Amino acid sequence: MRSTVIPLPFRDAIENGRIQKFEYCSELFWKYVRSCLQSEGKEVPNSPRGTLKESLARGFLHEAEYAAGMQIYVDRNACSHIYRQEIMPLILGRLPTHLALMQAVLDRVPAAETD
Question: What pLDDT does residue 71 have?
């Protein structure tokens, strides 16, 4: 089987796309979880940190997962606000872990009620 080498400009575009998708998904994740908590009548701060804390209190997020949940938003902020090329490979390497955590939490939250 022949190994395919992706030219640098294409690899860079693919990695940038993965980072951008992560940014969108992390935003949608905390906002969806927040809406689920609010539909249960919970008062939830309008921030990822507040949403994670309330998710922990409600049992949607386990104690052992809290630090990993916060890492999602540290990484998102690093991508969105403090762009440093040298940390991008580290964040790209953590994307599968971030995805697994988001999926696990979403499996635990009841669906948000829509009007």
Answer: 97
